[in-house]
Write a structure and sequence with these properties.
Length: 308
């Protein structure tokens, strides 16, 4: 194979500068607004995306497939049991083989090491469709959604109440790169890693951590949470998450402590009565359906950028 430029992977927000992330969002927004000439709306004609899922998915799977097809391309979808990886073929070999068939690879997997191995050996762009450590595609949709409802996110305040999980980590990356304040309220047992918090501090980010959700949401423009049990946590069973996380549930009382016009966000899937109450997620301040829709638009930006 002829030597080519290094592929444009989309692995984590901390690996990008702000301008590049803005550029990706702008491309997605242009498609959403249908500002491009019809001829330019199918820039990925003839391109093929392979999607590898080691974990379940509704939004990521459907939005990538629809997005790819709307841009003129197509997809191949593989679960772990469809491939030889389940029988011990290395990710490195899989990456080299897939790169001969497809133009990009989206991977949802357990560890960031799996993703890094795919990216190291693939000669086509690799996109992070969620790992135990992060979910960057979701954050691109989340920033797009926040800005549609509340204007530029730079300088605004976002409060996270709940598990310090993969979503919380990508919110930390986003806070640093997009210049907003992030207040994390997490149980002491379920905090994000110290390495991540040290990175945010070293970058000059405004990221704070406490175990007081009311202090976190005071004056916040947006309140965010996520499931108490992420995919894979069921098997770990190391702590009683429900007891630890109950004080961090986003209910009407907690929302009332944020700014009067604060919005509520959740990447979904949601569990009403656990991390969020029905009246909040189904209420007027919730933007979760726009957030889910924007997965499609933000990812069209990511696909076009990676394959551009
Ligand atoms: N938010 C999100 O990634 O949803 P899925 O797990 O359904 O893809
Ligand atoms: N934290 C959740 C996000 C799902 C999109 C999980 O990893 O299961």
């Amino acid at each position: 194979m002829l030597a080519q430029n290094p592929p444009k992977h989309f692995l984590d927000l901390d690996q990008f500068d702000t301008d590049t992330l803005r550029q990706v969002l702008d491309i997605g927004r242009t498609y959403k607004d249908q500002k491009t000439a019809a001829a330019d709306r199918r820039p990925l004609a003839g391109k093929m995306l392979a999607m590898l899922f080691d974990k379940p998915s509704t939004r990521t799977r459907v939005s990538f497939e629809v997005g790819m097809k709307q841009l003129g391309g197509d997809v191949v979808i593989l679960s772990q049991r469809d491939t030889q990886v389940g029988r011990g073929e290395t990710i490195a070999d899989t990456a080299r083989v897939l790169s001969r068939y497809v133009d990009a690879i989206m991977m949802r997997t357990t560890s960031r090491e799996n993703l890094a191995e795919m990216a190291a050996y693939a000669t086509v762009p690799v996109i992070n469709g969620l790992t135990d450590e992060s979910h960057p595609c979701q954050l691109m949709a989340d920033v797009m959604t926040f800005e549609e409802h509340r204007g530029p996110i730079r300088g605004k305040v976002v409060a996270w109440s709940g598990d310090g999980n993969n979503m919380a980590a990508s919110w930390v990356h986003a806070a640093v790169r997009f210049g907003f304040e992030l207040r994390l309220a997490c149980p002491k047992e379920l905090r994000p890693s110290q390495e991540l918090l040290d990175w945010a501090r070293a970058q000059g980010g405004k990221v704070s951590l406490s175990d007081d959700p009311y202090a976190a949401v005071a004056g916040a423009d947006c309140v965010v949470t996520d499931a108490w049990l992420s995919m894979g946590d069921e098997e770990k069973g190391e702590v009683n998450r429900h007891n630890l996380l109950a004080p961090f549930r986003v209910d009407e009382r907690l929302m009332a402590a944020a700014k009067p016009d604060a919005i509520f966000m959740h990447c979904l899937p949601a569990h009403r009565g656990e991390e969020v109450t029905g009246p909040v997620i189904d209420g007027p301040r919730s933007v979760v359906w726009d957030e889910a829709e924007n997965r499609l638009h933000a990812q069209k930006g990511i696909l076009a950028w990676c394959l551009g």
